[in-house]
Structure formats: C-alpha cells, structure tokens
Fold this protein.
Amino acid sequence: MIEDLPTTRTEQTAQRQRQALLEYHAILENAWVGIAFSRDRKILRCNPRFSEIFGWPHGELTGQAGSVLYTSAEAYAEIGQIAGPILSLGGVFETETEMRRKDGSTFLAQIHAKAINTADTSAGTIWICEDITKRKNNEASMRRLLLEQRAILENASVGILFTSDGVIMHCNPRMEEMFNWEPGTLAGHRASIFFTSAEDYAGFGAAAQPALTSNQLLDLEWSNIRKDGTSIWCRHLAKSIDLDDGKLSTVWITEDITERKATEEALHRAHDELELRVRERTAELDELNQRLRDEIGERQQAEDRMRHMANHDALTGLPNRRLLNDRLSQAMALAHRGKHKLAVLFIDLDRFKTINDSLGHAGGDLLLQEVAARLAGTLREGDTVARLGGDEFVIVLPDLDTADDAGHVAHKLVEAFAPPFLIKDVEIHATPSIGIAIYPNDGKDIATLTRNADAAMYHAKDMGRNNHQFFSEQMNVMASKRFALESNLHGALERNELLVYYQPQINIETRQLCGFEALLRWQHPEQGLVAPGHFIPLAEETHLIIPIGEWVLHEVCRQNVAWQRAGYPVLPIAVNLSPTQFRQRDLVEIIERALAGSGMAASCLKLEITEGTLMEMTELTLDTLSRLSALGVGLSIDDFGVGYSSLNYLKRFPVDQLKIDQSFVREIATDPDDAAIVTAIIGLAKSLKLGVVAEGIETEQQLAFVAQAGCHEAQGFFFSQPISATDAELRFLKLCS
C-alpha cells in the first residue's frame, strides 16, 4: 500500500493562514468595542458591535459614507480636518465626540483611529468606537455627590481632616482656622507639621496605632502646634478608612480644648522644655557626626563631579558646548580622512517662551529634560546630542554617505515630537525647528558649520516651524537682517526711538473713559513703526526688556502726572510686566523709584502679569505681589483663561482684576464655547470680588454680550486702537474734563 505523502510546505502555510484568518474573524466578531474599516470616506466593513452601537442592522453600514455617523456635516468635516494630518503621518487619532445613531439619537463616543498601513495611508483606516455615555453620566453624578459632601465638610464647626500614609489630603476651613493656616495651604503637608518634633509625632502615632489598626474609634487628647508655633491642646477623634488604594487612610475630627488643659499644661511645661532641649542637642550631635562622615565621601566625589560638570549641561546631563566642540572636531577630522560627510543639526523648540511662561521655569525645565531624552532616544549610538542653553540643542551625525541621510534623521526627529509631553499633568505639544549644515559643503570649521546650521534653523521657523531646512547662502542674508534688528534695538532706548502708545479702557455701564493700557512701540529710523511682535521677543531674549521696561514705567508715570497737572481726570494706567521683569529681585524698588520720581500716586498705576508668571508660585512671587499690593499698586492677571490658574491661586494672590483674553472675545457671538468661557470668567471674578476687563472688543454685539454678563470694563478697536499720548489727550481726555 502506498503511504500518504507528507503535507507540502505550501499547504502548511495555507493552513496557518486560514487558521489566522479564522482567529482574526473571531476577535472582530466578538470584540466588545465597535471596529470599522474605511477608505475614501466610506465604511468598507464593521463588526456587529459597531453596528449595534450605531443602531444599524448588521451589514447595512457597508458602503455608507462616514458622515452618517456624525451629528452634522460640519462635525464630520471638523473631525476630518483634525484627524487627517495625524493619520496621514501614521499617528493615532483619539478623541471624545458626540455621534449619531440611525434613529437620529445621539451618544458620546470615544474614538481611536489609525492608518491600516502606516507606509501607505491610502490603504484605509481602522476606527475603534466605544459608547461612553453611561460612564460620563456616572462621572457627573459622582461630581455632584462630592460637591454635596464638600458642603457638609466646609461648614462643620469642628476641624475635619483626611490623611493617607501620614500626608494631609484634604481638610475643612475650621481645621485651617484652628491651626492658623491660610485657606487651602494645609493639603499636601505631612501630618507632622502639627507636632513639636519628630519624636512627638512618633509618640502620637504609637498611642493612636492600636485603635486605628483594629478599626476602632480613637479618642485621644494631645498638645499640637499652630503654624506660628504656638501650642494648642486638641481632642482627636479618628478612625481608619479603607479606600482600596493600599494606603493607610484616616479621617480625623479635632476639637480645640486648650482652655480646659491650660492648668495641666502649666505643670508639665518645664519638664517638656527640658526634654525638648535634650532631644534637640542629641539631634545636633548626630547631625554633626554624620556631617563629618559625609565630608570624607564628598571630597572623594568632588573631582568626578567637577569633571562631569565641566563637560555636561547641568539640567539635562547632555554634553555642553565645550564637549560638543571637542566631539565635532574629532568627527570632522575623521570625515576629512575618510572622505565622508557629516551633518550638524541645530534644533530650537517652537514657541518655547510661551510654553515656559505658562508652565513656569520649573515646568519649562522638566520639558527640556523630556526633550533631551526624546532626542537621545531617536539617534544612533555614535551620534552626539548636546544642549547649548535655553531651548537650543545641537546634533552631530558623523559618517554619512549623502546629505539626504541627515534629512531622514531630521524627519524622524520631527515625528518623535508628535506625541505630546506630559508636564505637571498637562499635555504639552512642543515642536522643533531644525536647521542642517553639511560638512564640508557648508563649512570646514566648527564656527562656520554651526553658524550656518543656526541660520537654517531660523529659516525653518520662517517656513512655518515644525520642519527641517538645509542651509543655503540666502539664509545668511536673512540672519544678517535679524542680527541688524537686534543690534539696532540695543541703541533704540538711547536714541529715543521707543514710544509709549495708549489704548483707552471704557466703563461699560457709563461708556466713559476709566483708564488706559500702555503699549510699547519702536519708531525705527529706516523701517518705520516696527510691530511689537518683531522686537519684543528679541528684547526678551537679550534681556533688554529690563532697561526698556524700567523706562516704560518712568514714562507712564511722568505722562500720567503731566495729564493730571493739566487738569484732566485722575485715571489709572496699566503697564504689562514681562516674566523677566517680574523675576527681578529689585522690582518693587524700581516701581517705587518711578512713583517717587514722578510724584504719581501708586493707585494710578496698574501692573498686568500673565498667568504663567503667577503659576511659578515661588516665595519670591508671593513676596513681590504682597509688597506691590501693600504699596497700593493695582494688580491684574493679563490674558486670563489661556493659562492654568486655579481657584486656589486666585484666592491666595492679592490681585484686583482679571483681563479676559481677546481670543475668547473674538468669536463670542458665534462660538458657544467661547461665550460660556467668558460668562464663567466674569462669574468667577464676581465671586472673588475682582474687577474684570474684556479685551479685543471690536463690535457692538461683543460689547452687549460682555455687558449683559456683568463685565465692568472693556477695551478694543471698537473704542480705539492704541494711540499716541497727544491723540489720547485730544480724543479722550479733553472730552472728560
């Protein structure tokens, strides 16, 4: 009998393919999320769950236009405009949006989309859809419940506090009042702040531990301290709670029993003070012994640290300019001997100043560290990435066959920046502008090569940012013009080329002038009136904004006093402070000199500060604001709504006014979202008893809207563009006198 021939390799492959197709089909048919494939804006096919979500009989969606799933043609077009660029680059598009079922009803969907073939995006896309309406409703219900519970907590007559692993998570106002803490400042501290020492805290924990670990009610009296260091006797009722997070969480109810314990406390005070001095002395001796032991190790590490610091950037750990030049010199020598090419890539983050102002310097530093890691992770092992300072990075690509190789690397770097950076729980979209210079074509020495790469980078910015450009001789001409503008700016103040223009601010109710905002202009002798957007960033980069800003303060004070002496009404003038100005340690003294030199009252000066500047939340920020407020100067948050301010910050800062950013006002009559934001900001200002100014008013309709919402003041082209001091006097001040 003839034996069966073994299955051929082709048949085995076919069997495996059939089995894989069956498995993929089973996954698709039984997935709990909707999955659809589309091409040329039409649905090719979908799984049963997708049909079920959208209320279509399974199979009827095949061949339908994608627009049938959206609430309107506009909504469909808008999704396409956002998703198209992402999908065309092979990225993943994610969003939450309102979708439409076949019967016309709507629901909230979470959408994920990606090109089927990232190498050929015309092959179509896969869309994954989940109905999240119920989840969102549950989240809203939970928020309402939390608000109700918070109301109970906020109005309790005893102190209530929640801790997790010894950290204060939340407390009511009574607890902060009892311990003399400012509202909203206790959260985040360890509970040890209520105790005189670590030993005292440990003793309290030992006394409380048995009841808390056995889930019993703790009833304990203890002497604690307020923020100012004064003592307070408290009765603590506490019970552990299980939040399913693996941490020891406890709720505390605290009552002030100081008066009842006063007599008893007096008897023990002398003994307690003696023990405290012994503990402090012991701690000092332990610290001294440890310091002596550490000194030996520190001396051994000092030389290594100094060598590393001399050649590396302190923030990112990348090579600095010194090490970069050394490696570039070696790479150029090798390229010369091997007749290879090498590339220098000059990278600058787009709009980093705006991002830095919003996040604060600490957040900006975190972003730079993340950028450094992402750059290093994209390059080959033999490549070098260095940081020159600020947001400037340089990459050396040695041993290249053609210049196109550098272009491919630059394209990969741009793609690497596509995913957002998560900084302080905020998604930041940072993009690079990349300039490329090739050795030896674009320079045979380090200075020429890096200078030409820098010029190419500026050309990349001029070409719309988020791209790379190779160097050409024309770029040197453009760089020279920018350098000339910067050079001219250095002498603009001495040559009296700077001007202060004034934009009127109008009381909405009376339609009368109530103040001005001072705005800087540059009358260039050759180029005429230079737009602020062209020279203010240069002033920031070169720190010329410091002397220019001080001159503006003196000029505004002088002009205001001159108007007052001429018999015109006493009105405040607002002056914008850049983040660089605000960080000056002698800012208050500078303002005092401007007021004293002019004789103007502090109440006639209003300072406008961006949200990003305030968000840095340094001790210097709080101290400066407090001193300015005590001086009598008005404080206003400029462009409010575009940063990340919180109610907690607004409560703590001694600000007087919010200025609604004009980007919200511009479409207020046609965009419901902008209208809602403006209404909310005005309501917030009213609740906090702050003044509010609407910027960018250009139409009667916009003015009517903010007036109806309760806005106090407005400014914009509807009333007047920024004008010279002479025109301001003729067109506005004379009408008020």
